[in-house]
Task: structure prediction
Amino acid sequence: MNYTALRAIALSTVALAAIANAPLNACAADAPKAEFLNSPQALALDRPFSEAVRAGDWLILAGQVGSDEVTGKVVPGGIGPESRAALQHIKKVLESNGASMADVVKCTVFLADIAEWGDFNKVYREFFSKPFPARSALGASGLALNARVEVECLAYQPQAAKLQPAKH
Result:
């Protein structure tokens, strides 16, 4: 399946985790284990979740809100600045794990007010271009840190080891 076709597939995080745990070209004993990935900054925050998890060819990112990296507080200015900060965090996590925004195949967007969907989209287009990742957006009551937006993404990044023949 080519990259463009993969970008069009909308799978839930649970489905992707199940797929990643059952690689097609390896015996179960050879299957890589999930890697729980955290930057030093994420570890220092001591939150009860990982910043990202690599499961086979999938990089699954935790949701990001538009917080200031130094203070940890939501950036001021509303949906525009918060969206930009959240997507910059996504970009940073991807890049620190060897991926890029171009590898993202699915995003889920949680908005404190669904009426801000259009404003979010303006910022989203600064980070993504056609063909866009599959995406879901929904209004949510009460986001972490009283944020206006939270974004989580899934990236597909084939690993070189997966291209080698399986050993049985």
